[in-house]
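Morning, I've got a small favour to ask if you have a moment. I'm working through a protein record and want to make sense of it properly. The fold is given in discrete form, as structure tokens running alongside the sequence. Can you walk me through what the tokens say about the fold? Thanks so much in advance, here it is:
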Amino acid sequence: MAWPKHEQRKPAGGLTLIAMVGLAIAFLLYMAFLNVVKSGNLLSETNLLYATLIFYAGAGALYMGFGVTGTASYVKFASFATWLGLIANTAAIAHRWHDAGHPPFTSIYEMLLSSVWALAVLTLIAEKKFGVKVIGTVTMPLAIIGVFFMQLLRTEVHPLVPLLQSTWLSVHVALAVLAYAACALSFALAMMFLIQDHMKTETILAISSASTLAIYAGTVLTCFEKWGGVSLVVSNPDRKAEIFLSQALRFSIPIPVLGWSIMLASLVVATPLLCYFLARWRRSDSFLTLAHRAVFFSILLQTMTLIVLLVHVSGSRSHLPTAGGLFPGALTTSPFILAGLVAGILISLLFLLLVWRRPDLERLLPTADTLDRITYKTICLAFPLLTLTIATGAYWANQTWGSYWSWDPKETWAAITWLVYALYLHMRITVGWRGRRAAYFAIAGFAVVIFTFFGVTYLLPGLHAFS
């Protein structure tokens, strides 16, 4: 007998995951409280962010549990945990605002703090208004990663430089934060559309494997040393800032073994993609079965590589007399390796979830047409925000620098982001693009957003170096 669409199963022991997540949250909050008792500062920004991370992580686990089992109560408690995380997130923003004396929009840390808040708000709206109850399986991991990486960024409060002492700062950055959060939501919706549109699992295998392989290949090409290790920038743990030997030369520390670990993981990550091409060439499903098993083993090896990274970095030290003694190896100034390893694991895990539970996920999701329409509405929200972001930035730049446009890297990539979403809307309105082509544009647009938000800041510094 077929299971009716959108009907939700109620397996025995449905409260087990809720109880486990609740106990984990209570335990972690209790441990945090013990530390607070020693320090005597309960409502510090660090504690509020810690609470935000705990609640968002609990929400993510419950959303994932709903995706696997279809138990309706999981969504209710996931929404509740998201609300609690949102409250803690709001309190952290208010605390930062109070300490700084201005809205938290002046650094990559503060923008990320606000962007995660906006993403949580849009997640709750999408779940309540549009009934996309599985949306949190994608958006909450993004929020968790955002809060986690905030711990790697500089958090000290500085007086505003004259350049930033303008009302246009709050207007310009607030628009950007809302626009980027809407782009993230459209990405999640587009991913779910591809599932509901019956895209072949092997095609999703090829895309996910190629994405993971690109992450590892990029890491190898940019960080691998001839002696088999990786050189990481050394950071001052108090300031969370890099140490320079000269004006353009950063002090780095060699991490042995890690290069070979990443190289081996790259080969294993490439195996599912190779099996996919063999299955297409030989027209044999046995290679696809092998590819699914290879994904599982790649997750194990990726996790081991992540552990090697964390252990070696935490235990590394380097002596620099001119800078004041021993300094630890850290990822605070360049978190791309850690970000890549975590992203690779998440991509692989989401694919395995799809393989194991695809029929269940399709029953829990709205129809493909509904998801396509909601994605369009979300981009219709994001695009005007992106337009206003660029317009207010240009006006502010003319007031500050005497020019509306300077071809700064951040400006250039903001324009590229705008063009991607403009092309999406143009092709949909004039040509009638629907379905997968539109979903591909939404996914590509978010990839450009990620590079504009993080990549430009670290790799292409310019007039926007502070952001």
The beta strands are 230-233, 235-236, 241-242, 252-255, 317-320, 325-328.
